[in-house]
Amino acid sequence: MHVLTVLATALLSGVHACTVIGVTHKATADGSSLLAHTDDAGGGAADTRLIRVPAANHEPGSKRAVYNFFGGYPRLTTKDRGPLYFPVDNQTLSTPIGYIPQVPHTFAYFDQDYGMMNEVQLSIAESTCTAKTVGWSKDVPYGFNLFGIAELTKVALERCDSARCAVQTMGDLAVEYGFFSEDSGDPAKPGYMDSAEALAISDKYGELWVFHVLTGPHNASAVWAAQRVPDGHVTAIANSFVIREMNLSDTSTFLASSNVISFAQDMGWHSPDDPFDFAKAYAWDDLTTFPGKILPLYAGRRLWRIMDTVAPSLQLDPRLGYQVNFTTYPFSVPVDAPVTLSQLVHLLGDHYEGTPFDMTQGLGAGPFHAPIRYDGPFQNMSGGWERPIAMFRTMFSFILQIQPPAAHLPSHLAGTAWYAQDSPHGSVFLPFSCAQSSLPLSYVTGNQSVFNTDSAWRAFNFVNQWSMLRWDVINGQDVQEVMNKTQTRAIAAHASWLRDRLNATELEAAANALATDVVASWWKLAWVLVGKYSGGYITTGEKPAQMLTPGYSKEWLVQTEFAGWPGKTYMDPMAPYRYPQQNDKGTKSNAVEIVGFMVLGALLAVGTHYLVQTTRRDGYTSFV
């Protein structure tokens, strides 16, 4: 049991274990829709660049190349997706695994592993899920499938301006050409833990949809389903299918592949006598293979935290976890109060602070209340850590904001990608227009294995890493203060751009200037922290009194060997005179007893002397 539990934990830590939060436009304070994503990949080097793929026109009969996913650097080298993906320094071109017919025109979009947001505001966020099927790409001998989720999202952003179009386009392509997950292992050891995908998709028409896709029959083709999020609601995805019962006759709310029910029946995963439940039919139930509570809480605790934050009146139970065979948390919840962008920024940096699951508390948080819990190996032990929204291995995160449809703003003002490098618990979400054609050089520079001060990602990553020296004061005070001020500044700047109705050129220049300035300020913060926090000291000036030794907290000290030190590791040579002694009977005599006996002895001696003297006087006889 211990081995299996540890194995499951290790598998979870190595996938694209991301969190998605979708907020409909009628659930926000300003009427905009918000779609958030944290990319918590970890476990392998990644391409840190945010790429702008330009719009393009294509000749009749053209083909669109489809590539397999590569998580390292560079993620892609090609001449058909703009100059930022051109090969450099003797890089070789990526090899397509197949082609599909091209369309006459494709939209521009932001790309980092998955497609994010295109120039007409269509927005996508991703979260990997478990499933009962598995498939592989066509470039391996046992694979039949052309599309992974990365290329599906990019095709959707190239061709669509609505969530419905994106759902149908991705679903049709997956069924026709086959879907696979890049984390599916091989036939000898299938990766069911992460063989499927979930997306949330929002658009300028005010709709927000959730899309699920997995490999279909015989490790080929696909099965998919989609559900619209009701207006005024918030939805969340945490590496688990969230679509449950479906009314397929209601196409305004549900869409699906034609085989969505029949395939489940053929496999014995659904009885026609029961209501069809997508998650129950297709989600992989880890409890049948791995004893314990890993997946239920790995997914469920985040779902609870998000929904409880926006709808505390529902009093959802955090202990239930996500369950495959029955519903513990709803598909979406109506908000108790309108959600703001700032609230969502704060939620993305959450570690369950203020709850019974607060990761800044307890022995695991160390002496400095750090919410960081690194991945295994876990020495063949059962157990686990809480899985928060913000993680040490978050590569980037974003909030895709679409202004209210009624605002009638031009597209370059209506769509904003609020983008943060590294973990959001120590980063700033900066606004980029969905229509801008370029990004600051620092956002397209650098990789993980080389320390490069020209890289925006490295600036935020370095500050987050330095914060680990003393989390409670470095992140808890210095970084949070600068982060909050900078985030407030960015939100105010964005509001002024909308108010002033900047044109596309002005907006791009303003956004890039703000981002460049913030990255420069983050490097300044980094060097301040390096000078201020070193060797366990806090140094704020050159006078002796300006170097402080903060020490450790009492609650941590009492849990360590400090409280019992030195114990039996020290023997005082003067102990016989100060400390408990052994008498003839083997019982201990303390100092009070010893002093008492000494006083009694003295009294007896005085008394005896007195009696002797008295006797001598009474018995005296003179001889004279």
Automatic annotation (TrEMBL):
Is the keyword rRNA-binding in the record? no
Please name the GO terms of the biological process aspect recorded for this protein, alphabetically. proteolysis
Any one Gene Ontology molecular-function term assigned to this protein's record: cysteine-type exopeptidase activity
Q: Which UniProt keywords apply?
A: Membrane, Signal, Transmembrane, Transmembrane helix
The residue ranges crossing the membrane are: 594-612
Which Pfam family, just one, is annotated for this protein?
Answer: Peptidase_C69
Signal sequence: where?
1-17
Family assignment from sequence similarity: Belongs to the peptidase C69 family. Secernin subfamily.
PANTHER family linked: LD30995P (PTHR12994:SF17), SECERNIN (PTHR12994)
Protein name as catalogued: Peptidase
